[in-house]
From TrEMBL:
<keyword id="KW-0997">Cell inner membrane</keyword>
<dbReference type="GO" id="GO:0055052">
    <property type="term" value="C:ATP-binding cassette (ABC) transporter complex, substrate-binding subunit-containing"/>
</dbReference>
<comment type="similarity">
    <text>Belongs to the ABC transporter superfamily.</text>
</comment>
<dbReference type="GO" id="GO:0016887">
    <property type="term" value="F:ATP hydrolysis activity"/>
</dbReference>
<feature type="domain" description="ABC transporter">
    <location>
        <begin position="25"/>
        <end position="255"/>
    </location>
</feature>
<keyword id="KW-0547">Nucleotide-binding</keyword>
<feature type="compositionally biased region" description="Low complexity">
    <location>
        <begin position="1"/>
        <end position="18"/>
    </location>
</feature>
<feature type="region of interest" description="Disordered">
    <location>
        <begin position="1"/>
        <end position="18"/>
    </location>
</feature>
<dbReference type="GO" id="GO:0015423">
    <property type="term" value="F:ABC-type maltose transporter activity"/>
</dbReference>
<dbReference type="GO" id="GO:0005524">
    <property type="term" value="F:ATP binding"/>
</dbReference>
<keyword id="KW-0067">ATP-binding</keyword>
<keyword id="KW-0813">Transport</keyword>
<protein>
    <submittedName>
        <fullName>Sn-glycerol-3-phosphate ABC transporter ATP-binding protein UgpC</fullName>
    </submittedName>
</protein>
<keyword id="KW-1003">Cell membrane</keyword>
<dbReference type="GO" id="GO:1990060">
    <property type="term" value="C:maltose transport complex"/>
</dbReference>
<keyword id="KW-0472">Membrane</keyword>
């Protein structure tokens, strides 16, 4: 592939741009404080439509807080968030066209896989025939058809994580948000699920934002990496750019590139 439009540090949002230019996700001057503690210090970022973007950085740098603000699970203290050119800053999570993938333990243990997949759609009063269609489609993508009548407790860790991802797929979101979805799986399973998630992105083509503290996950999954440190962006670029031309010694040290 050629050099994408966002390459070369073109991450800062021009003033007044509401994200219409990208069709993806646009953050403009996004800040977050908890009480007197400033956690996110004014993030300007343009995430192109369809890109697999990874937020990476050490524990506590604000990755989850940033993702939760995009999801609408956390209010911004200042700034704007636009998705597909629409200002969603003050919208409820369910009105943003996003779906968040949580760790697999967020499944309902007393429900079958089928009911876990259908639950959100039922809550949204989706007609039964449409629910059945979407559950079948998601199961086909994730190869979980044979598991639909089981309970989460009867599944392996990897199967549970597929169902957790399936719950996002059935909602047909514009944007998928992942917060360290693989961090409670063992090393071998993490690798195979990483491959599954990459395949999912190729098949669906959605904008995906993926949070991890794991450099290998970032380097292997991302079209675009956003390196965060203490609530600020240190660098934005392709894995190759970040590796070969780290912006500073923090990025070089964190990604493990020679410098
Ligand atoms: P990461 O996901 O990168 O590990 P977080 O976004 O979870 O980081 O947290 C960033 C910082 O914000 C941490 O110092 C954390 O303690 C703090 N923080 C997160 N949520 C809250 C909260 N609800 N109240 C106070 N501080 C919080
Ligand atoms: Mg986190």
């Amino acid at each position: 592939t050629g050099s994408p439009a966002w390459a070369g540090g073109a991450a800062a949002a021009p003033p007044g741009d509401d994200g219409a230019a990208t069709g993806g996700v646009r953050l403009s001057g996004v800040r977050k404080s908890f009480g007197h503690l400033d956690i996110i210090h004014g993030i300007d970022l343009s995430i192109p439509e369809g890109a697999f973007t990874v937020f990476v950085g050490p524990s506590g740098c604000g990755k989850s807080t940033l993702l939760r603000m995009i999801a609408g699970l956390e209010e911004v203290s200042d700034g704007l968030i636009a998705i597909k050119g629409r200002d969603v800053t003050d919208l409820d999570p369910s009105d943003r066209g996003i779906a968040m993938v949580f760790q697999s333990y967020a499944l309902y243990p007393h429900m079958s896989v089928r009911d876990n997949l259908a639950f959100g759609l039922k809550m949204a009063n989706t007609p039964k025939a449409e629910i059945d269609r979407r559950v079948a489609a998601a199961s086909a993508i994730l190869k979980t058809d044979h598991l639909l009548d089981r309970r989460p407790g009867q599944l392996s860790g990897g199967q549970r994580q597929r169902v957790a991802i399936g719950r996002a797929i059935v909602r047909k979101p514009d944007v998928f948000l992942f917060d360290e979805p693989l961090s409670n799986l063992d090393a071998e399973l993490r690798v195979s699920m990483r491959i599954e998630i990459a395949r999912l992105h190729r098949e669906l083509g959605n904008t995906m934002i993926y949070v991890t503290h794991d450099q290998t996950e970032a380097m292997t999954l991302a079209d675009m990496i956003v390196v965060l440190r203490e609530g600020r962006i240190e660098q934005v670029g392709s894995p190759r750019e970040i590796y070969e031309d780290p912006a500073n010694s923090f990025v070089a040290g964190f990604i493990g590139s020679p410098r």
